[in-house]
Amino acid sequence: MNAFYHVCFTTTDLESTMEDFVRAAAVSWQPPVQGRVADWDYRMAFTAGGPPFIELIETAPGGPWGDTSTPGFHHLGFWTSDLASGAMRLTEQGFPEVFSGCPHGRPFAYHRMDTIGGHIELVDLARQPSFLETWNPGGQPMPAIDESSAS
After folding, report:
1. Rounded to an integer, what distance in angstroms lies between the CA atom of residue 125 and that of residue 144?
2. Each residue's pLDDT tens digit, 79-89
3. Taking residues 51-56, what's their average pLDDT?
4. Contact yes or no for 147/125 (Cβ under 8 A)
5. Closest C-alpha among 14, 38, 3, 1 to residue 120
6. 23: burial class by Cβ within 10 Å (0-12, 13-18, 19+)?
7. How far apart are CA 7 and CA 65, in angstroms?
8. Which residue, 88, 125, 99, is CA-closest to 37?
9. Domain coordinates of the chain in residue numbers?
10. pTM confidence score
11. Pick the CATH number of 4-135 from 3.40.640.10, 3.20.20.70, 3.10.20.90, 3.10.180.10
């Protein structure tokens, strides 16, 4: 089992995109939530039913999600046992960090992976209980990249 747990797309219309996924793939959704990271407001939703999840983010262009004026793929999300070590590992392996939520009290980081036209998101494992409570109540713990043995 690996630490991949979601794929994220940006959208200009959260409800329409959610409905499109319902019609196209019969997925169900947890209710959307609103949030703010630094100066950027956003709305987001995750599919219901457990990993792997689909995440949708609706936000104005700019900020951590870049040009969101056109919907598209943004990132693949992975849990990590140690965000600082994981971010250093990815940077050293040629995947530059383009945004860290850590200075804003959010334990995640986006790293650019040009070969997929998007990002790898590392999320600190300490955040997982809160994630499960919000997006997958009663869900089982998910594995994380063990940064002490990752190369």
Report:
1. 7
2. 999 999 999 99
3. 97
4. no
5. 3
6. exposed
7. 14
8. 99
9. 4-135
10. 0.95
11. 3.10.180.10
